[in-house]
Amino acid sequence: MTAQERRTALAAKIAEELDLHPLQVIAPESKMRRFHWDATPLDAKEIKDTIWHDIGQMGGKLEKEVFFDKKRFETLFHQRVKSSRRNKSSDDDAGGAGGAQKRKGRKKKIPKKVTVELIESRRSYNVDITLSRFKMSYSDMVQAVLDLDESKMGLEGVLRLISAFPSKEEMKTVSQYAGDPSILGKVEQFFLTMTSVPGLHLRLRNFRFLLEFSQTAPKVEAMLKGVIESCKALMTDKHLMFLLRLMLYCGIYLNAGTAKGHTFGFRLTSLNKFQSLKSTDRKTTLLHYIVTRVNRYYYHRKDHSGGRLSPNTSIEEEDAKTAESKEGTRGFLEEVRSLVRKSSRVEMAYVESEIKQLSQSISLLKISINEAVKTGHTYPEKVTEFCSYAEERHRALSKDLYTAHREFGETCRYFGEKEATWEEFFATWDSFFTEFQRAEHDVKRNILNARRLRRKQEYEAQRKRAKRDRERRQQQSRGKLRGGSSQSLRISEMVGGDALASELMNEAFDKL
User: What mean pLDDT do residues 265-292 have?
Assistant: First the structure.
């Protein structure tokens, strides 16, 4: 038994075990170009309960649904008997242009009043710039943080204050100063004010969490909802299943008679390879051809034609009719495409870390509320209410995270893939949908351009025919005029000839 016979027998066994339609035996008349895709192994475990299992159970002939023209397909993607490639050489001229950077002259420092500076100059300079943006005194800053007053200090101000807040070493340096505080620099006085209230840095962090929660929680929730919806859309979209079925058929057709042609499916890593395979004449790709078949199927499904191809209509004319239709393929994959594009920008690690950070921040806030009673700087009542609300939202987000992981795992298994990160999985689909959309535009533009060129040629031919007809009519009219004068001349000649003949006859009779 040959290797191909063993593969055929194994495919038949799997089809019987999983209740699939047997693999169609394809025997192209021409030798086809090989399509190096990642075919799913002939293993029942790899196929069971996947999208390829569902596709394999579909009845009906795909060729009739998409008007698959085998001769045209083989013409586009057959192997060349002889290939002559010209060696192209290109010289890249690399040129670099360098420019000298101008040094900015330092401004002369204006003499200042003698002050005591304890903080390193660069750090002091940066803090001084940050403090200049606040339009309040240092004591008012402290009071706004203690009261968690959003009207006096927003999120931007809190973030600035955190960046300028003194470190432990800086607080120790300022606290050890025993001189006159009035001669300290602005930054040193700010640090001294911040160290006067114990636990102020922790309260500042809680203030930040309080302000950011209204932005972070909805953002994370939207990301999780998007991932869940994308997974469901990929698993249930009928148009996508039809497209994968057509792509599988084309791949099997190209690899007929080889090991890669005996398969019930392919890996998602092969999605972008359909764009890479060019036709024999290098004018189109396998993906562009698939788009034309999708257009035909989708147009006849939505249009009134009932899916029947007119026997007097060429394939090019039908494609042009499809491209010029009002519907076209608009909306064919639009819903799943938009969902996947948003999900491809969601990083799984970021979502998990944000939810974990929310849990830690809530716990820290609860501890701070209890500890603040000892220091006398109690938290406002609204913070206690916010803490209960944040815990409820965190439980909902944790539940959504669990659902997203579950749906994502089921989606990966449905497509026969191993679980990866969200962004990797959805980025593969987003890249393919982008290429498919670009191919849709290319196909429509090429067909419409061909139609315009054909109309232009028909117009030019019609114009030339009209010109020839006009010239022929003019010649005929001129011929009629010339014909009238010559006819009168011939009549006169005939009349003159008869008279001469009669005279000659008379003379002859006279001689007799």
Answer: 92
Structure tokens at 167: 């470190």
Beta bridge pairs of residue 78: 32
Residue 56, token pair as written in the block: 């394999």
- The DSSP output letter for 312 is T
- What six digits make up the tokens of 379? 């938290």
pLDDT of residue 77: 87
Q: Whose structure tokens read 């500042």?
A: 204
Q: Are 303 and 281 in contact (CB under 8 A)?
A: no
The model's pTM is 0.75
**Is 76 in contact with 289 (CB distance < 8 Å)?**
yes
Which three-class secondary structure string do you get for 134-152?
A: CCCCHHHHHHHHHHCCCCC
Question: CA angle at residue 402 from 401 to 406, to 5 degrees?
Answer: 115
Rg of the chain over all Cα atoms, to the nearest angstrom: 42
End-to-end CA distance of the chain, in Å?
119
Tens digit of each residue's pLDDT (9 = 90 or more) over 497-512 = 555 455 545 555 454 4
In one letter, which amino acid is 328?
Answer: G
What's the CA gap between 344 and 335, in Å, rounded? 14
The torsion angles phi and psi of 425, rounded to 5 degrees, stand at: -65, -50
In this structure, the number of other CB atoms found within 10 A of the CB of residue 438 comes to 14
Q: Which amino acid is at 500?
A: L
Q: Which one, of 292, 294, 193, lies nearest residue 245 by Cα?
A: 294
Q: Which residues contact 164 (CB under 8 A, 6 or more apart)?
A: 126, 127, 130, 131, 190
Long-range contacts formed by 277-283: CB under 8 A, 24+ apart: 277/33, 277/35, 277/77, 279/76, 279/77, 280/33, 280/75, 280/76, 280/77, 280/78, 280/79, 280/80, 281/76
3-state DSSP assignment of residue 17: helix
How many angstroms separate the Cα of 211 from the Cα of each of 140, 158, 198, 394? 19, 9, 22, 16
